[in-house]
Amino acid sequence: MLERYDAYDTFNKEYVQSLQLEEKLYDILIDKDSSQEQLAEHLDKLNNSYVKIIEANEQFNQFTNEYNDLKKNFYKEAELNVKYEDE
């Protein structure tokens, strides 16, 4: 369960960093003195941040699915008649 929280924290951190990089991208685009090389380097950083977001999101989703499966098994073993929307 703690792994899921850690995965969410990682996802959130990567997402915030990506937003900061996007904001910096707009600053570069507005700056008439910025070079093509500077723009390309920043776009590489931004694209790498998107990859990290996707990886962190996939990890979080995996832990969430595991948690939901464990929760369903617990309810079944406890003989709680829980109904799910997906069933």
Automatic annotation (TrEMBL):
Pfam families for this protein: YkyA
Protein known as: YkyA family protein
Species of provenance: Paracerasibacillus soli
